[in-house]
Design a protein that fits this description.
Blueprint: H1 9-19, E1 26-31, E2 37-39, E3 42-43, H2 50-56, E4 64-67, E5 78-82, H3 87-93, H4 99-106, E6 110-113, H5 117-127, E7 130-133, H6 148-159, E8 164-167, H7 169-177, H8 181-201, H9 211-224, E9 235-238, E10 259-263, E11 267-268, E12 271-272, E13 276-280, H10 287-305, H11 313-330, H12 336-340, E14 380-383, E15 386-389, E16 394-397, E17 400-403, E18 411-412, H13 421-428
Parallel strand pairs: 1-7, 5-6, 7-8
Antiparallel strand pairs: 1-4, 2-3, 4-5, 9-10, 10-13, 11-12, 14-17, 15-16, 17-18
Length: 430
């Protein structure tokens, strides 16, 4: 890992919060992700399952966490199972966690090698009544690959059919959505790395530069600052490419007079940031581009103020839609008849702003969080309105990451990243 070690007290706290919500006499099991094959002996880079990471800090393949708060003996209440390391593995693959190092990272005293898991699990099953299985129930999830977690669930159900089953995910959806201060600091650090990348590219951009050259400038700065790289596949969309919401080819030349919509951000220690900015290829916005840009900025600023404890996502989105409708009327993109005759299921503003305004953010870019439940302090949300005008050859999206506060306005983790037109033009022409 490139990042500095995180204080293990975060994981001790997270486990305590989780086990406090478990049913009496129950076990919870969490598996690491697989290393996914590409072809021949090639694999994708390993990325840890965020749930075992959240509860243990273990950022390594072939790892299992077992929690049993009511176990007969104290040493059985938290157990880690790791792939046994050796000198051979150290030579070929590098450092793996030893039992001592695993305790330093996680705060878990009982650490076994993976080959002991089935034997010890069998003993735990004789003591417990219920097992918590960890299924993926994120509202955006569409998983076709059989994960290590899914294989475990299938095996466990066949091996222990008499036990009751409970779900870890509803507990984790609520816990992970409300961040500890250490987590907020890590997200802030990811945002700060993102800022360095953004400031690096502003004077670099000029007519004729390729979208992928901008991508290269960003990845250079991110890795230089101990990030693994992009928190998600980067969108660097010049001209009309900006009107494809998830444009990721990044292979076109940036032309004079066009805008570039950037949806690019760094991760740090597996925590995401999520930035969108829209900048002029030639270093100056046209008057029309300024008008649309400032309309999007006003929507973003007003939407941000609504992210307060007790707010609900659906009414929030409706209110943002009303603000956007007013701006689109002012820009001449909608008229009163469009609004009067709109379909309530697909309001008129959706022609130019068709996606949601905010989502939870944290260990995942689209992080855990139940949108039907009220917002709480220390939740982190994106705020990302946009206006997309294919007939005019450009689209504009602006996005920051904000923390819901117990009192007062949300705190903008990206508040120092340039967003005002004058600031961006000055930096691009400096």
């Amino acid at each position: 890992m490139k990042y500095h070690q995180i204080d293990r007290n975060l994981y001790i706290t997270n486990r305590a919060k989780f086990t406090a919500q478990m049913k009496p006499n129950s076990v919870a099991v969490f598996n690491s992700n697989d290393i996914y094959p590409v072809s021949a002996d090639s694999t994708l880079p390993f990325s840890q399952h965020r749930d075992i990471l959240y509860l243990s800090g273990v950022d390594q393949e072939e790892s299992i966490l077992l929690l049993f708060p009511d176990a007969p003996y104290e040493y059985q209440r938290e157990m880690l199972f790791l792939k046994e390391t050796s000198e051979h593995i150290a030579i070929w693959e590098g450092e793996k966690l030893t039992k001592v190092r695993a305790f330093e990272v996680s705060g878990i005293k009982t650490v076994y090698w993976l080959q002991d898991f089935h034997k010890i699990l069998n003993e735990m099953m004789t003591y417990c009544d219920t097992i918590y299985i960890n299924t993926n129930e994120h509202y955006r999830a569409a998983v076709e690959t059989e994960t290590r977690e899914a294989r475990f669930v299938k095996w466990w159900k066949e091996r222990y059919p008499a036990h009751q089953v409970a779900k870890s995910n509803p507990i984790l959806q609520r816990l992970r959505s409300v961040k500890e201060q250490v987590e907020l600091d890590l997200i802030q650090h990811a945002c700060s790395i993102t800022e360095k990348g953004f400031r690096r590219l502003l004077p670099f951009v000029k007519p004729g530069v390729m979208e992928y050259e901008i991508e290269a400038e960003l990845i250079h700065e991110f890795i230089k600052n101990r990030s693994k790289g992009f928190a998600y596949t980067p969108i660097i969309a010049s001209g009309n490419n900006a009107n494809v919401l998830h444009y990721i080819e990044n292979n076109q030349s940036c032309k004079a007079g066009d805008l570039i919509l950037l949806d690019v951000a760094a991760e740090y220690a597996n925590y995401s940031s999520d930035l969108s900015r829209t900048i002029p290829v030639s270093g100056r916005y046209s008057e029309r581009q300024k008008a649309v840009y400032n309309a999007v900025l006003r929507v973003k600023n007003e939407a941000t103020q609504m992210l307060v404890p007790g707010a609900l996502w659906k009414p929030y989105q409706i209110e943002v839609g009303k603000i956007m409708t007013s701006e689109l009327l002012g820009l001449g993109l909608l008229d009163k008849a469009d609004v009067q005759n709109e379909n309530p299921e697909w309001p008129a503003y959706k022609k130019y702003f068709m996606h949601g305004t905010s989502h939870h953010m944290g260990l995942d870019t689209h992080d855990y969080g139940l949108l039907h439940e009220p917002m709480k302090a220390n939740m982190v949300f994106t705020v990302e309105p946009g206006i997309y005008i294919p007939e005019e050859g450009f689209g504009i999206r602006l996005e920051d990451n904000v923390v819901v506060q117990e009192k007062g306005a949300p705190f903008n983790l990206m508040g120092t990243i340039p967003i005002e037109i004058d600031a961006i033009e000055t930096l691009m022409n400096s």
